[in-house]
Specification:
It is a multi-pass membrane protein. Residues 14-424 form the TRAP C4-dicarboxylate transport system permease DctM subunit domain. InterPro entries: DctM (IPR010656), TRAP_DctM (IPR004681). Belongs to the TRAP transporter large permease family. This protein is mainly alpha-helical. It has one domain. 80% of the residues lie in helices and 0% in strands. The chain is built from 20 helices and no strands. The chain has helices at residues 3-19, 24-40, 42-57, 64-77, 80-92, 98-114, 117-134, 139-150, 160-169, 173-201, 214-239, 245-263, 268-302, 304-315, 319-334, 339-356, 361-377, 383-391, 397-420, 423-426. Helix 9 packs across helix 17 (361-377). The chain is globular and about 75 Å long.
Amino acid sequence: MDNVAIGYLGLGIGLLMLLLGVPVAFGLGAVGLIGIAAIVGVPQALSQAGLVFFHEGTNLVLVAVPLFILMGNLANHTGIASGLFRAMADTLGRLPGGLAIASVFGSAGFSAIAGSSTATVVTMGRIIVPELKKYNYDRRLGAGTLAAAGTLGILIPPSLVLIFYGIITENSIAALFIAGIMPGLLTVVVFALVIWLVAMARPNLAPPIPGPGLRDTLRSLRGTLPIFGLFAVIIGGIYFGIFTPTEAAGIAVTGVVLYGLVARTLTWRAARAALLDTVVVSGMIFAIVFTGYFLSRFIAITGLTDSLIQVIVAMELGPYEFILVITVMYLLLGCAMDVLAMILLTVPFVYPIIIHLGFDPIWFGIYIVIMAEIAMITPPLGLNLFVMRAIAPDTSFAQICVGAIPFVIAELVITALITVYPQIVLWMVP
């Protein structure tokens, strides 16, 4: 069996293992290590494993990962999420569908300090679901809104997914963060427009809520200034080259800690819980990433990417036809596996083809994230749909799926827009 055949076989086995529920780190690591051993021998494979752990384990860029995770956990334990939602609800609640629109804007704000989709859904869902029930919002609309708004956590910087894409492809993480801003804002606006149109067509599904006076609204908004100020400092500092994403992560953690101390919401118990959560999640992510590098080296050794490029050339697929093919592929894969696993499995062989076809690598990073967003809310296997089911057990899974469909359509429209007009993604990138 030649190397390319071993590559295809290994990739198929890896995909099968992930679909069968084998832990991602074990699946990727086993395929990579055994595959390399089959080609170059066991001693060389073990040597490669040691080099990967040493080289990637000493990569300073990875320091940003636990720091951004810690920032999100601290924000979760210091009441920042509830403050953001309350400010948005006070400001937007009088609009048709205002409470649901406030959920989108509040989730976007929390995403800017969380960096995780699941964390955004869980944190904001626990706060917002009782409010939606209180004001008799339609369960389908409410659940679909929260599931969709949670996906902003992996697009709006700082995004852990963009960090790993940048590391794997050796692209600028700062450029990826900047590129995620406009698509993130566009997604927020489109989601809000979807809710407004639904509320205008059927007012009983999303009634406006009574809001406080102007003075109380301004007071609520003033309470969010430190958080948005911190976001501006992080992104502004990265954009103007004042500090690196890793340094920005350290500044972000410091800012959230200071906010918690000044607001008197950061207790020893909250800090301990945040640190423990960070250690657990970081350990899991690093295990996946390091073993994912075994798979990347395996694919490189087999020459699988060159073989796939030859197949694409032989099929005479144009650039946009290929994008359509991998769009379907990512939607199917994203419904069945974790976002990080999907990226580690596919980017090593898809990325060179994308570059060969002339697409911008920064644009492709944002495209993958949006594909992951769609997959996370696509019925019936989207991860965020199951998370919402756990948060709102009195809402049926069928209702959650129905509520998510308008947002899936909206995300597909956004995907088409950034594909036809890539400058939506790239115009701010220095």
